[in-house]
User: What shape does this take?
Amino acid sequence: MRRPTSQLMKGLIPMGSSVTQSPMKSQNKRSFPQEMKGLSKIEGIEPDKLTRLFKAGRVVIPSNPRHKTLKPCAIGEGLRVKINANIGTSPDYVDLDEEVEKTRVAIRYGADAIMDLSTGGNIRDIRQRIMKACSVPIGTVPIYEAVCKTAHKGGPANMSSDDLFRTIEQHARDGVDFMTVHCGVTKQTSASLVKHKRVTGVVSRGGALLVAWMRQNGRENPLYEDYDYLLEMAKEHEFALSLGDGLRPGCIADASDVPQIHELIVLGKLVERAREAGVQAIVEGPGHVPLNQIEANVRIEKAVCKGAPFYVLGPLVCDVGAGYDHITGAIGGALAAYFGADFLCYVTPSEHLSLPTVEDVREGVVASRIAAHAADLAHGRGSAWDLKMSKARRAFDWDKMFSLSVDPERAREYRKKRKSHSPKVCSMCGDLCAMKMVDDLLK
Ligand code: SF4
Assistant: This one.
């Protein structure tokens, strides 16, 4: 196995460690089996079943022992659909307090995981501050920081593979629970971009950086070439891999094209190698997908990646929702989750337009939370929540309705905005309130 040459890398892998150990023996030490009981209770499934799914790699529990504030959560087959909120600075906007506030708001409105995608300011400081405020699994994309840190060398092409692996190790030591690594962006898969012309080319930031790096250096993607090394590092530091879709389609016209599927086939093989090495792996998916292709996208991932948890970005079901892409993403997310996607990455109203604000994060999380819950209901999970809400509606118990709403503050604001002359009903129908009329008649 070829390893990066950095002195910092030496001694990282303990003597005698083996990537051929069985998944059962080598899975995440912190979450298995101690937390399996608690998680099975939360998910409403038998502990034995959850353990079986976890051992088979169909459920992942991202849980880095160094993330001290973490309450682990399980993601995958047969479980409640989970949602992720991306936060983080950009080169244009760096406000640490705002990112911490975004973390709090995202968790408050139902995010099951947070990804810090910071690319501006002191990225490590920001990550550490966010982690302290973060009780849910936290993910990162280490190549962003690796490239930012080596900017003084004159651009992404001058980042060495050691720079990249050193950054991954730092993220692991800081307690990151899962990391997006675009291992499927290879010389071969990116070559198919040339043959199969796209409207929007490469839209993944990590994917684009790696395509540029490979072209300019004439070398293979280090995350692919040194994948065994990455696996050893993931096993040693107990973080999960989120195999990124660096060649995901960025518009409806490019959906489900050859580069996307070609990369997915590579990811499927990498999932198997991760499982053999006892490393947890999630697979990331698109992107922009029309409604009629969503089922196929989920089924192909589940078949090619042997049931690995599928983590989709949206997907956005049309390209023209600018300003409302939390809605286009939620429509796609609901359908994807209905067909078996396990983990939805939210989309905010500022998608394609600007760095999200705290309010955008709230809107994005709520939209995604509704999409996930809609799919859960269709799978026979979580209906007690809706039943309570319906009973509160029937009883005109407005405070209870607010407390049961996915966004209680927003519900309360709307109720106040246009009051009815009758305090019991709302101003939509006033005295013609259907439920009240029937109640009065039956009395
Ligand atoms: S007034 Fe109309 S909208 Fe409002 S609670 Fe009654 S039936 Fe529902």
Observations:
- The CA atoms of residues 286 and 342 lie 13 Å apart.
- Residues 425-426, 428-429, 433-435 surround iron/sulfur cluster (CB under 6 Å).
- Confidence is low (pLDDT under 50) at residues 4-29.
- The first helix runs from residue 23 to 26.
